[in-house]
Request: fold
Amino acid sequence: MEEMIKFNARCYALIRSKQNRVLVMKERWQGVDLNKFPGGGLELGEGLLECIYREIDEEFLESERLNYSHLYTPTDCFASRFKPNEQLLLNYFTNKEVAQEELWTLIPGDKNLLGMNWLELKAENASWFTLESDRKAFLTLLEA
Reply:
């Protein structure tokens, strides 16, 4: 493994709906299209849940203010796909109460936010995600 020189903490929300689905996004990051959960990088001085709320505000025109609890943090070392000298510290949260799908709308006009969908909570849908860590988080949600 290459020498890691920087940590990059990231927080993601697995937002479950009344219809037994989870909110997912298609997003372009550094020219690569990703199938992922809402969320992103922790900013200096920000708590993990503050990061979730800020990322939701940045990605969605309309949303609900939900309460979140920790779901999953991988214990393996993850190097960033885009910056190999960065080690990712990934944190996944899920909502305590179910979401109402009709209250969620992606911000229009952002060239990097390619779309959102509600994905059924079935094990075979884990393959939809681009990144292995998201697949593992999805499967962890199914076991919760």
